């Protein structure tokens, strides 16, 4: 991965809908090699996909929560059942395995506190193996993720042969 690849990733991080023509102009590379580089990074998995950032408040989703979950069983079956339940939940934006007293951190958005209470009672407590939860509410957002910041001399193994 060289300077052009890093510039491509930085521009796509800012705007994933940029045209190849505009992208090539911004990084000072002709369109054909620019497109080849983008395709190579897509094929190698460096670019895993493209998404849309949605303003949750415009959809009436005004409550952001971070919920720590503790499991009672840590065997393969219990963990798999819990993770399957989380993956099937439309309210869970992200789920991370964490260290410490709790096992998972869930990022959740809800319409209001009442809908969160309903979610806890009908969905979260019914997930396999949940023995405890601890919720924290966000009252503002300082920075929202738009991808990984790209800098330095990155050389992923998957890219070496692709370029």
From TrEMBL:
This is Lrp/AsnC family transcriptional regulator. Keywords: DNA-binding, Transcription, Transcription regulation. The lineage of its organism: Bacteria, Pseudomonadati, Pseudomonadota, Alphaproteobacteria, Sphingomonadales. GO terms for cellular component: cytosol. GO terms for biological process: regulation of DNA-templated transcription; response to amino acid. It comes from Erythrobacter aureus. Residues 1-62 form the HTH asnC-type domain. One of its GO terms (molecular function) is sequence-specific DNA binding. It holds the Pfam family HTH_24.
